[in-house]
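Here is a tokenized protein:
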Amino acid sequence: MLNGKKIVVVMPSYNAARTLARTVAEVPRDIVDEILLVDDASSDETVGLANELGLTVFVHEKNFGYGRNQKTCYREALSRGADIVVMVHPDYQYSPNLIVPMAGMIAYGEYDCIVGSRILGKGALSGGMPLYKYVSNRFLTLFQNILLSAKLSEYHTGFRAFSREVLEALPLNENSDDFVFDNQMLAQVVHFGYRVGELSTPTRYFAEASSINFSRSVKYGLGVLDTSLRFRLHRMKFFKSRLFRMRGQKLLPTYYKQIEVDGVANNALSDRQ
């Protein structure tokens, strides 16, 4: 807890057994009230290890995708009374030590959303980011800043923190279940006028860290372009996008149910769609 705000860390996970313990070890438990891990049908020992580490664990009955995983993460964090939710990838690519300043900027009312930027400073390439990813990051960010009339150093980081108000208000169920969910969510934050802050964060690219391949990166990039164009056309009233309608679908609790699984996980999720 920080300044009277309950802080919940969420970890969207898929085959993270090799890096999970290292990531959890650096979470500042003096301010973090609970860690939730949502496993997207991993084939390794992620779930068993997460239980051993004392995390609150949810398991998707099949692989629904990174975006759907986040929807579950945020829904469950809100149901547990979180005032601030910090997303940390369990692949140890980002430093959990930075949870304190990220959460603090929200807890003390300076921002509604914080993103950990790999681009601020000079840490991206030195941390091992492939050159093609760096170049595409810079191009897509410039494109989005122009179309969204914003000024962020990057939109593509997976290290983020949100206030409860933001998570309850955004029509997150309108977003993709794939990787472009991240980008759509930030575009929504900008569209609805929430305050976005950035924190320079180092990044680690190594063999065990998860990273999408070239073809998935291309698909993500095209999704970013599509999101940006939808944003601009919606603002210009040429086209009404469900992504940017406040009346769009929020994180409704009818999306899944909890199932008791003895000795495997604390909870399991079952799709109802």
Observations:
- The longest helix spans residues 214-235.
